[in-house]
TrEMBL record:
Organism of derivation: Arthrobacter burdickii
SUPFAM superfamilies: Arginase/deacetylase
Family of the protein in this entry: Belongs to the histone deacetylase family.
UniProt superkingdom: Bacteria
Name the record gives this protein: Acetoin utilization protein AcuC
Length: 400
């Protein structure tokens, strides 16, 4: 059995039951139960007991913390709605169908942000090399607007914190099924940050953005990178796209730290998306990001969660594998899921979850070096991205 183990470097896992307060209500897809089940599975797999792993409770980010990536007016509006949901502000995306207002919204959202900020602080201080905040990844939140279940953009806040505390360049990689539009918009004009988003095309999925021609603002051309994947891409296409774009640009950019968003809503069972990706392929991309961090950043890597709405059958397995990859632990898609966890989910939700951490898929992809097929939808979208940004970084879109 393949273990895919890696170096045991100091890792911080962000978790506390207080994170479950980020709760839009029982009928909303963003059910905090997915976090509870993930935390329980990571414990049942023994990941939180490893000697080089510490568990950190998130702090509630201050208004000053949040103002590094959000406007003061927006923070004030969130606070207002948080204390009185009847004051919903649809113009700022608060109190909508996607982000319903609830009492305590500000504190709950700021706590998720604090988790990623604390991870950034720990990396800057050198107390850890890697960190995972599977409750984070709120990548749709823009500077002055909530969107797509996201209120405060914790990943963007972590990127900005790293910059403010000495990082020269930060690479943000987003493999959620939805375009990482909020994070892209916040750093649109900043060449110190490269945002790479691989997502289902906006022609078939919210937020309807993230095409190859979105490449960054004046002075930062080529630092926003988008791969708009075909609607039902599947494992081999997604992995071909990842390996045809991400390593090359990461090498040219030479980041000091990588921040990644691992929304697992690309899965074939997810009720909101169409990409049809397996947990095994998601795991392969996690390994790809870890390899880049080890090769380019002395291992420095913050990984977040994000989307994922098959709350019992998919999310816990995917994000437990994320923790395992970051921990360098010998847990892989072929590893059996602990029976105690499966019994707990069956009793709690009546769901008979998979017996293995993965889906039994064999992730495989054609290397870009094999050649470009102009009749293939995936190859055309990858080539569009490479043509749009590779030359701006001294790379050849046909061969590098």
């Amino acid at each position: 059995m393949s273990t895919h183990s890696g170096p045991a470097v100091p890792l911080q896992v962000v978790w506390d039951e207080s994170m479950l307060a980020y709760n839009f209500g029982g009928q909303h897809p963003m059910n905090p139960e997915r976090l509870h089940l993930t935390a329980r599975l990571t414990r049942d797999c023994g990941l939180l007991d490893l000697g080089h792993v510490t568990v950190a409770s998130p702090f509630v980010a201050s208004d000053d913390d949040l103002a590094t990536v959000h406007s003061p007016d927006y923070i004030s509006a969130v606070r207002s709605v948080s204390s009185n949901p009847d004051r919903s502000d649809a113009g700022m995306g608060l109190g909508t169908e996607d982000t319903p207002a609830f009492v305590g919204m500000h504190e709950a959202s700021a706590r998720l942000a604090g988790g990623s900020l604390g991870a950034a602080d720990a990396i800057v201080q050198g107390s850890v090399v890697r960190a995972v905040n599977f409750g984070g990844g709120m990548h749709h939140a823009a500077r002055s607007r909530a969107s797509g279940f996201c209120i405060y953009n914790d990943a963007a806040a972590a990127v900005q914190r790293l910059l403010d505390r000495g990082a020269r360049r930060v690479l943000y990689i987003d493999v959620d099924a939805h375009h990482g539009d909020g994070t892209q918009s916040i750093f649109w004009d900043d060449p110190r940050v490269m945002t790479i988003s691989l997502h289902e095309t906006g022609m078939s999925l919210f937020p309807g953005t993230g095409f190859a021609n979105e490449t960054g603002g004046p002075g930062a051309e080529g630092y926003a990178v988008n791969v708009a994947l075909p609607t039902v891409a599947g494992d081999s296409a997604v992995l071909r796209a990842f390996h045809a774009v991400v390593p090359q640009l990461a090498g040219a950019f030479a980041p000091d730290v990588i921040v990644s968003q691992h929304g697992c809503d690309s899965h074939r069972e997810d009720p909101l998306t169409n990409l049809r990706v397996s947990v095994d392929a998601q795991h392969a991309m996690m390994l790809g990001v870890r390899e880049l961090a080890d090769r380019l950043c002395d291992g420095r890597w913050i990984a977040t969660g994000g989307g994922g709405y098959a709350l019992a059958s998919v999310v816990p397995r995917s994000w437990t594998l994320l923790v395992a990859v970051a921990a360098g632990a010998a847990i892989a898609p072929a590893t059996p899921v602990p029976a105690a966890w499966r019994d707990y989910v069956l009793e709690r939700h009546g769901i008979d979850t998979p017996a293995l951490m993965g889906d039994g898929a064999e992730p495989w992809w054609r290397s870009w070096e094999i050649g470009y097929d102009p009749n293939d939808d995936l190859d055309r979208t990858v080539m569009a991205t490479r043509k749009a940004v590779f030359p701006l970084h001294g790379l050849d879109p046909w061969f590098d």
